[in-house]
Amino acid sequence: MVSKMISDPIHAINERITIIDGPSGDGGERNRGYLLGKNSFAIINTGRRGSIETTFLEAIYNKGKDAKDVKYIFITHPYPDVMGGVYKLKKIFPNAQVAINEKCKPLMEDPKNLIKETNFKFSRKEKLYFAVKKDPFDDLDTFKPDIYFKDGDKFTVDDTKVMVINFDGICKGHSMFFATAERAMFTGDALNMYPALPNSYLIDYSGSYKIWLKNIEFLEKADISIICPAHDNYQDDRHVIHYITDVKEAFHQFENQLEMVFTEQKYLTMNQLIERVHNSQGIVWYHPFLLLAPRANMTAHLNKLIDENKVQKNEKSDPVTYTYIAPKDDNFF
């Protein structure tokens, strides 16, 4: 189920960068891609399957150009709300080369099932849930990209260079694209995952909290004029650093709340931790991440605290529980 459009689906940030928006999902999440270029073009992320593919073509026509002028379709990571439209786009823009990180190559053989197994480790609960609800991963079919890039690779699009920046933070192979002429960073899901509240993020089982934090620190130091996220509003000029800081602060707030929850009970299960932390922070996720994100994110945070010798995982208990073992700071607790 999708909601109606509430604004113009084609919105120019400047003469080189155009936002392509489509109908939002049943949780209100933005369905978005970007068009980069003036005379020749790159599409950055495709939106969900069957949603904004033809809108890209309309945006090209609006610029007085044709389908043959699209050179590349860049994919930040192989999630259904980011690359689901690639199948139709490849038919609309036959000259365009589809490019994704080389670390994603094993998934392309069977993305529908491999992402569920590798990135989200579907349990019986998830399988039953998606037997009733629409399974968004069903939108992903076997696909052979034209280009497998790696960190540091560069592409020329019109009069700008596009550099690949890879951090396996939210998932293995997640890549950002930096357009040099505009100093614009297309961040994919490295930052906000709209509309999780408060400012939030997703770290799946193939990702790493350590690398995610390095990604955020990189963005804090980089000379960026425009940030273009996959699902949130773009930010420019002085708003860029505030946006990045908000997301980083959300990570630390979540962790602080998690440590606080450990004072209430000595042994806590994963489900108890998720319920108490999410309820206290008012975090809301949309379908399908309503089910998938909380467990993946909690695992990432617990791994961090375990690495820091603050939390112990009790694997012999049934179900598995977690215990806070770090010295308790009276001022904090």
List keywords for this structure.
single chain, 333 residues, alpha+beta, Metallo-beta-lactamase, Chain A, Arc Repressor Mutant, subunit A, 2 domains, 7-stranded mixed β-sheet, 6-stranded mixed β-sheet, 9 helices, 21% strand, globular, disordered N terminus
Q: Poorly predicted ranges (pLDDT <50, ≥5 residues)?
A: 1-6
Average pLDDT across residues?
A: 90
Q: What is the CATH superfamily classification of the largest domain?
A: Ribonuclease Z/Hydroxyacylglutathione hydrolase-like
Kindly identify the CATH topology of the largest domain.
Metallo-beta-lactamase, Chain A
Computed structural class: alpha+beta
Q: If classified by CATH, what would the architecture of the largest domain be?
A: 4-Layer Sandwich
The share of residues in helices is 25-40%
CATH hierarchy class name of the largest domain: Alpha Beta
In total, how many domains does the architecture comprise?
2
SS element count, helices: 9
How are the strands of the biggest sheet laid out side by side?
A: 1-2-3-4-5-6-7
Written description of the protein model:
This protein is of the alpha+beta class. The chain has two domains: 196 residues, 4-Layer Sandwich (Metallo-beta-lactamase, Chain A), CATH 3.60.15; 74 residues, Arc Repressor Mutant, subunit A, CATH 1.10.10. It has nine helices and 16 strands. Strands 1-2-3-4-5-6-7 form a seven-stranded mixed beta sheet, covered by helices on one side. A six-stranded mixed beta sheet has the order 8-9-10-11-12-13, covered by helices on one side. It has a three-stranded antiparallel beta sheet with strand order 14-16-15. The longest helix has 23 residues. The chain is globular and about 65 Å long. It starts with 9 loop residues before the first strand and ends in a 9-residue tail after the last strand.
